[in-house]
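Review form for a predicted model. The reviewer records the input and the model, then writes brief findings.
Reviewer: anonymous (R2)
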Amino acid sequence: MTEGLRNIKFSKMPSPPITDSEVSKMNADIKESFSKIKPVCDIVMVCPSAESISNFVARVSELKRDVMQELQQYLLFPFITHLKSTEIEKKFEIQWRLVDGMRVVLEKVVVNSYDMCYKIETTLLSMVFDNSKPGMLAEVPEELKHSVMKCLTVLQVNLDKRFREKMLRTQVPLLAQAVFVSVHVAKLEKHRALRLSALNSLMAHTAIHPQLTTDKARIPEPTLEALVVDMLSSILPGVLAALQDVALCPNNPGHAVVVVSRGGSESSKEPPTRRAF
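Model under review:
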């Protein structure tokens, strides 16, 4: 068993965000699903491992979307808690497994909590940001960076419109950090899949991701467009310079990276596993 997959057991954990009173108010369908998924979540909470996370992913995939929407905070709670904990610091393999497990939930819901979004965003960025290193990127495995970039993208793409606008109004420094990290991963890293995931993260944080725009690559809501313009106005020169470096890099690993860095979209999907490196 590798260092990252030791049986890490946590004896003291905060209580999950669902009380007995809230359970009693659930409709029958959600209550039944909750009773089935709760033991799986409990195992991930007590002992995060490859097996427990894989079992979680398999069981969650069986849930209906409306159930996942209702239970999203409960499902994500073990993952957020562990990733914020120092208990798994430097245990990179378990970290990327946790990030990937969290992404499975985020892909199937509309993120309905601003506070939860903020916690996930700040936690993920802290895993790959280090202002003492060149490019301010942490010295962590490419697999972890790749998982973080993909999870950040899904988080922003599936964020409730109200909270996207609130974040653009109130969290410009945080979004600027996310843009900075995404651009520098795209600029400094070598592998195609990782660089593409970083460019997708950049587009998601600036609301120009294909899933957030029209078929003519326009932000559909004028209010949101104005907020994005305001946010970008202070950081755009640096972003454009870095993207130009990505597009003109003589060692560029693929045409798709050039296309996306110029504002296009890559139609082909990333490989389904992390073995893109």
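Findings: DSSP finds 13 helices and no strands in the chain.
Further findings: The CA atoms of residues 153 and 204 lie 6 Å apart.
Recommendation: see findings above.
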